[in-house]
Amino acid sequence: MKILVVGGVAGGASAAARIRRLDEEARIIIFERGEHVSYSNCALPYYLGGVVPKRESLVLMTPEAFKSRHDIEVRTQSEVISIDRAAKTVTVRTAGGEEYRESYDKLILAPGADPVLPRSIKGIDRKQVFTVRNVTDVGKIRDYMDAVGAKTAVVTGGGFIGIEVAENLSKAGLHVSIVEGLEQIMSPFDYDMVQYLHKELLDNGVDLYLSGMVSEITEKGVRFTQNEEEKEIPADLVVMCVGVSPASSLAQAAGLETNQRRFIRVNHNYQTSDPDIYAVGDAIESYNRLGCAYGNLALAGPAQRQARAAADHICGRTHNNRGYIGSSCLQVFGLNAACTGLSEKAAKARGIPCEIAYVLPSDKVSLMPGSSYLAFKLVFELPTGRILGAQATGRGDAVRRVDVIAALISMNGDLEDLKELELCYAPIYGTAKDVTNLAALVGLNVLYGDMPQVHVSEVRGLVESGAYIIDVREPGEYAAGHLKGAVNIPLSQFRNRIEEVPRDRPVYLHCRSSQRSYYALCELRGRGWRNAVNISGSFLGICLYEYFNDVTRGREPIVTAYNFN
User: Fold this and answer.
1) Cα→Cα distances 531→70, 167, 182, 496, 511, Å
2) Same domain, 9 and 78
3) Given CA atoms 301, 306, 307, 311 in this order, what sign does their dihedral have?
4) What are phi and psi of 2, to 5 degrees?
5) Last-in-domain residue among 209, 242, 275
6) Range of the domain at 365
7) pLDDT (0 to 100) of residue 505
8) Which of 115, 143, 485, 537 has the fewest beta carbons closer than 10 A?
9) Which helix (H) or strand (E) holds 138?
10) Which long-range contacts (C-beta less than 8 Å, at least 24 apart) are formed by 137-146?
11) 427 plus 465 within the same structural domain
């Protein structure tokens, strides 16, 4: 059997290697239009900041290594320009312009996606404008930085690549600005959770312009519109990270079925509309098992699983296609962030009734060195308690906690399952009641009606409307910063002062992270109060939610002083 693979990065290289493990006799040829094959595309931004010191380290395997180790022929700088499905051949163009045909029994398309370069932006073709797709791209950026002695950079787009590029350019000593068209960076995260990342960028000297639309790249900078105001910021170099589009033109020209967004349609086994042609990776349409709809997930992990499944099917093995749930993570300077499944906004957009548990406990026992809060948001379905998604941000191990939720989602777990989940514990790693277990307990209290709550996004409206808010922290904590207009009834005095709490109007309770205010809520409900509501996230969550917009918009804070500890 002769198998041709178009694209030699995560999906293509993985499919080829898997086929070789299953079929020692197959002839396998990989065509890669770029200079390198099997490179670490996820690590590309880290070369810019020196985290990966050598450019050649990004290349994981050479064509020679593929041949000697796997007996797979790799042809770099060879672009497949057309497919003749009837003749079962492809036409290949070499770097020198020579064209030739190659026959196949099975064909795997793994072309990936191309960075978007909006042609509506004036000056988009200037020499200081770059994209990030491969090793050659980051090499050009690094060479240009050194050649011109770059001091300033603008990154357009606040997705995974944009944020990683911005952080690494900042670590390389450049003053970096990010221009993002939406009201937040990192769209997989909810608006409340992404405020932590906004603040971290601001604290590390990265200027963040949200709701900004770039109109022109000039010789010395970038012009954009933000809130109907025209602005210009200096930029020695500009990195365009506004998104990617599927590299599906080859498939379309061959008459293979694509969707309205030009992603290649595949079946359960990753076969295209031609059963002898398979497709995997960033260019294909895949199934979102939680949203119950087809979508696209441009991540290396899913691409490798798809590649293995396609290779198995070619070699006569069965595969159970469960779709994707969407798990991802990143580091932003000192913060770790991760998410999985559906965000709250995504669940509501799909019409799924849901609620959240939002907790800010210590990521490890508080007396351990390096202990810090971990913001954790759990999204669950109503009324079943089925877990839909989670997001975590903090200086501790956010990724491990989200991985726990990803595993539970894959097994259709609910809040009761998470409550009883037994996880590893030692004081230097976590707490006896892990962050994830705690979120489940809070979620069950919400689900069963034991803890009425409002979210941090609602607190500004409460303060500005003169709502009755009780701060149950101790007097010293209150004096160091509190919500304007809040009444201080410390939890240590709460039982003796409970009659001070009104019964004839809504009462909102908070502490630092919502644990003490939950205790106060229980005392009130146990004595007949039915008008008390807990503020999810409490004072720490409020400060973190409000800070970035207060600073960048110049608006009046609702706190007398911020507290981020």
Assistant:
1) 69, 46, 37, 19, 18
2) yes
3) positive
4) -110, 125
5) 242
6) 327-447
7) 95
8) 143
9) helix 135-148
10) 137/44, 138/44, 138/45, 138/47, 138/48, 138/55, 138/58, 139/47, 139/55, 141/48, 141/237, 141/239, 142/47, 142/48, 142/55, 144/237, 145/48, 145/172, 145/174, 145/236, 145/237
11) no
CA 499 to chain centre: 47
Q: Of 447, 482, 505, which closes a domain?
A: 447
Q: Are residues 374 and 415 in the same domain?
A: yes
Domain check: are 301 and 354 in the same one? Answer: no
Q: How far apart are CA 326 and CA 255, in angstroms?
A: 30
For 7, 213, 315, the CA distances from 16, given in Å and listed in that order, are: 10, 42, 12
- At 345, give phi and psi (nearest 5°): -65, -35
Mark whether 144 and 284 lie in a shared domain: no
Domain count, the chain: 4
CATH number at 339 reads 3.50.50.60
Taking Cα atoms as reference points, which of 388, 400, 395 lies closest to residue 435?
A: 400
Residue 124 lies in a domain: no
Q: Find the CATH number of the domain harbouring 467.
A: 3.40.250.10
Query: For the segment 44-91, what is each residue's pLDDT rounded down to a tens digit?
Result: 999 999 999 998 899 888 899 999 999 999 999 999 999 999 999 999
Give per-residue pLDDT as tens, 471-518.
999 999 999 999 999 999 999 999 999 999 999 999 999 999 999 999
> 73 and 104: one domain?
yes
> What's the pTM value of the predicted model, to 2 decimals?
0.93
Q: Is the pLDDT of residue 297 over 90?
A: no
Contacts of 285 (CB under 8 A, 6+ apart): 258, 259, 263, 264, 265, 266, 294, 295, 296
Are the C-beta atoms of 261 and 246 separated by less than 8 Å?
yes
Q: Burial of 430 by CB count in 10 Å (0-12 exposed, 13-18 middle, 19+ buried)?
A: buried
The pLDDT of residue 498 is 96
